[in-house]
Amino acid sequence: MAVKRVGQKIKMKSVDELLCVPSVAGCEEIEVARIHPFKDHPFKVLDDEKMHELVESIMLNGILVPVTVRQMEDGDYEMISGHRRLYAVKVIGLERIPAIVKDYDDDEAILAMVDSNLQREEILPSEKAFAYKMKYDAMRRQGQRSDLTSSRIGTKLPEGRADDELAQQVGESRGQLHRYLRLVELIPSILDLVDKKALSLATAVEISFVESKVQEMLYDYMMENDICKTFQIFALRNYLKENGTINKSELMRILNENAPKDESNRFQQLTITKKKLQEYFPTFYTKSQMEKVLFKLLEDWKKQNTETEG
User: Fold this and answer.
1) Residue 89: inside a domain
2) Mean pLDDT, residues 18-36 taken together
3) What is the pLDDT at residue 20?
4) Sign, CA torsion 268/274/279/285
5) Does a structural domain hold residue 131?
6) Per-residue confidence at 106, pLDDT binned at 50, 70, 90?
């Protein structure tokens, strides 16, 4: 029995072998340059370790599953399913890719694109949010159409039932589905915090009801202080309901006043090193003289801060 040697080279397929069209009905070769990403594609294509594994797999085995596209009015093609495979093929340098051309209208294309990408192992909250929103809107439009008795993808829905049907299809509760739909109202920097698991979904949903200008101030606050809790956003939203607008100083006051209370170290002894004090005081100053200056500065700061808030 032949034994595989350590360090034995892996035999890569030739270009002709890589481009061998899979035996799938309707499959043909299409020029890579003529395939364009799906408009507003909500799923990220990352040049990460999994992409490197996909590239290696294609170089060893060829393209086993053809991509799915639809033809556009100018004769080029829009990708429906296979954005990662297309990226990998471009990395390898192949000029053509096996593809199946589908005759989808806009809404059918959205439904097919979302459904195929939801099969991924890992999906970010932002990807779910925009994918669910695209599919939800498409399903609602189909439910409102009177020119079709049914859709070629899925079933035409009565108006108002799209969310129930979508929740069932994607395996979410109706409430969880609506939480994800709310995320599309977040500014990108805050949505990124959700993807990084720095901000909880529940808190992010509450933030989504706040206008983008306030969200920007809120993001700055979280970067300078700490990630906000849901009850802090409740307080902020209540203030906005009563006042309509808010400035950064008032926003800070509300968030700080409603921050989680931790009095354990708030008024413990504050230590300032001698080296740090020497940066600001002459060496001949006594302890009492330095305290007097510091408290005077604090009084001025308090007065100035109070006037600003007023």
Assistant:
1) yes
2) 77
3) 56
4) positive
5) yes
6) very high
Please provide the average confidence, as pLDDT, over all residues in the chain: 84
Confidence of residue 2 (pLDDT cuts 50, 70, 90): very low
- Residue 191, φ and ψ in degrees, nearest 5: -60, -35
Number of separate domains in the chain = 4
Instruction: Name beta bridge partners: 36.
Output: 78
Whether 266 is covered by a domain: the verdict is: no
Give the H/E segment covering residue 28: strand 27-31
Q: Same structural domain for residues 85 and 145?
A: no
Domain hosting residue 222, numbered range: 186-261
Indicate whether 97 and 138 sit together in one domain: no
Pair 240, 246: CB distance under 8 Å: yes
Which of 103, 120, 141 is where one domain is finished? 103
Q: Domain check: are 16 and 99 in the same one? A: yes
Residue 268 placed within a domain = no
Which pTM value belongs to this model? 0.71
CA distance 220 to 251: 11
As a whole number of Å, the end-to-end CA separation of the chain is 87
* Type of residue found at 34: R
Estimate the crossing angle of helix 188-195 against helix 125-144, to 10 degrees: 110
Beta strands 96-102 and 67-71 are: parallel
Per DSSP, the three-state class of 187 is coil
User: pLDDT grade, residue 149 (50/70/90)?
Assistant: very low
Task: Tell whether 15 and 97 lie within a shared domain.
Answer: yes
Q: Do 227 and 164 share a structural domain?
A: no
Q: Are strands 27-31 and 96-102 parallel, antiparallel or unpaired?
A: antiparallel
Please, which residues bridge with residue 28 across strands?
Answer: 99
